[in-house]
Amino acid sequence: MNIEWLSLDDVILMHDDQIRLYGGSAGVRDCGGLEATINRPQALKYYQPETSVFQLAACYATLAKAHCFVDGNKRTAAEVALVFLYLNGYRSKIEEVDLVEIFVEFVIGNITEEELAFIFEKNCVDLT
Question: How far is Cα 103 from Cα 87, in angstroms, rounded to an integer?
Answer without folding.
Answer: 21
